Amino acid sequence: MAPAAMTIDVEDYYHVHAFKNSIQRSEWPKMESRVEANTHRMLDLFAETGSKATFFTLGCVAADHPEIVKRIVADGHELASHGWDHWAVFDQDRATFLTDITRAKHTLEDIGGTAVKGYRAASFSIDERSPWAYDALAEAGYLYSSSSHPIAHDAYGDPNADRGPHNTKSGVVEIPVITATIGKRRVPAGGGGFFRLLPLGWFTRAHRQAITEGLTPNFYLHPWEIDPEQPRIKDAPLKSRFRHYVNLSKCELKLKRLLHTATWTRMDEAYHGWIGGTERSDAQTGHGFASNAG
Q1: H-type helices in 113-199, by residue range?
Q2: Judging by DSSP bridges, how do beta strands 179-182 and 78-81 pair with one another?
Q3: CA neighbor of 87 nearest in space, from 11, 143, 165, 199
Q4: Comparing C-alpha atoms, which of 189, 177, 90, 190 is closest to residue 132?
Q5: pLDDT confidence bin for 154, thresholds 50/70/90
Q6: Residue-by-residue DSSP string for 108-159
Q7: Phi/psi at 145 (nearest 5 deg)?
Q8: pLDDT value at 287 more than 90
Q9: What are the pLDDT digits (tens) for 199-242?
Q10: Structural domains of the chain, ranges and CATH numbers in brackets
């Protein structure tokens, strides 16, 4: 079976961008946290199926639940950064963004005892509103980003962006979430709410199409997407609630079936030709990470 990249955005249900006007950040510490148990369920599933993944992990989650980070590394998965606390890049200025991604990277490296090479923006939010983002990522020591979803969407995406991996002017490689095409139209094939809404067969066909085009599938989910028992945010907009809650009860089984359709692996292995063998040294990043032994 062809290799494909499995990626997990490690965040809790109340972190999502769709609920930003319904749950204030000051309320986060009061919310029931479910990310640790849900992430362990995903790790168990990957262990059962022999799959590997890249876990784009929020720094605030890592600080509160360090055992998640340690298990991700111990199980042979790639540890990567999702920023500190799920701010859209275009809602920050360059200095704030640099502080956020640097803090997240250092925290993850210190807990996990391994270099963090990759970054994914909250809600795929690197676009024309943040032209400085890749320069900041390079300055912070990241090698690659997976922050582009090249489709038309009301909350994110650029239907004219490159569909495949490409070098940015800063030297950081951008590896978009996978898409498929129907005629001249791009359609989603990369996971998230689309995975819960559309039939599994759509994704397997779309991934085969991508492979024939020379593209490696880059698929994503969140731990909260396999948790139908999570608290409901009742005052969120109807569209946000539909997108967030649709088919949560079916997602875990669907994911398990998907894992048998390809050789699912880490980003740094699936895209080794783009990001392998060029890792910056500690001296270059200006940060040494602690061992996680014991």
Answers
A1: 133-140, 193-197
A2: unpaired
A3: 11
A4: 90
A5: low
A6: HHHHH-S---EE--GGG--STT-TTHHHHHHHHT--EE-----S--SSS--T
A7: -130, 150
A8: no
A9: 999 999 999 999 999 999 999 999 999 999 999 999 999 999 99
A10: 3-285 (3.20.20.370)
